[in-house]
Design goal:
about 240 residues
């Protein structure tokens, strides 16, 4: 028998062990990443004042952007599943929403942070745009919950607006150092107007949907038979020419 070189199997074994270690490291990173995301979400929901008080003012846009992106995916998944099973949305549209909705949400997060950055500066804050983005992005922690609450007509949307108002006021006081009364006054007025617009748009949308359903029912029950009878009546009135 020929002797097999000992190093041959050792190399394979080392490679296997290295691959196993890499997979274990990846699993470790994923678990740590999941723990960070879920921990941040729970902290914002349970004690937003403590969270914003301890939040880093700087550190880059990546962490808050990833957090907002994950929240957007969860929101898109919840809304998409509800539309898929109860709204009759095609499966392809459901998959498309999982890509489009988070992208739009992230774009809006930068625009929304810019709006709040201007408002906070007007109110006397010296914090940077990065800090404003962090405040706005981490406030998205409540969006999965408010999406579930939003299933309830009117009440769900109003509860989400009031909750977001509270988070904005807390961030204004704890991060930007602005007086509580001043924060409640300005943002209270703005969010009140937002609530009025939101309730009005929901009422209009529901009213239009009810009218559309009523019209379809009328066309199905009355319009189609009438359309079928019209040619026969016209044919009976026609007099053949000699």
């Amino acid at each position: 028998m020929k002797r097999v070189p000992s190093g041959r199997w050792n190399l394979k074994t080392v490679g296997f062990r290295r691959e196993k270690v890499d997979l274990e490291g990846l699993q470790e990173k994923m678990l740590r990443w999941y723990g960070d995301i879920s921990g941040t979400m729970i902290s914002v929901i349970r004690d937003p004042a403590d969270f914003y008080r301890r939040m880093s003012r700087a550190g880059g846009f990546l962490d808050p952007m990833v957090f907002a992106g994950v929240m957007a995916v969860i929101v898109a998944l919840i809304g998409g599943l509800f539309s898929l099973f109860f709204g009759g949305v095609p499966f392809f549209d459901f998959l498309l929403s999982l890509v489009v909705a988070p992208a739009v949400f992230l774009l809006f997060s930068f625009i929304g942070a810019g709006v709040f950055f201007i408002l906070w500066r007007i109110m006397g804050s010296d914090e940077s745009y990065e800090t404003a983005y962090r405040c706005f992005a981490y406030a998205s922690a409540i969006t999965p919950v408010t999406t579930l609450i939003g299933i309830v007509p009117y009440l769900g949307g109003l509860a989400g607006i009031l909750w977001m108002l509270y988070l904005v006021v807390v961030a204004t006081v704890e991060v930007h150092g602005i007086e509580t009364k001043k924060a409640w006054t300005l943002f209270g007025v703005l969010f009140f107007l937002l609530a009025v617009v939101s309730m009005g748009s929901q009422y209009t949308a529901r009213h239009m949907a009810e009218n559309r359903d009523a019209y379809r029912s009328a066309v199905t029950e009355e319009g189609v038979p009438a359309a079928r009878e019209a040619p026969s009546e016209g044919a009976q009135r026609e007099i053949p020419r000699e």
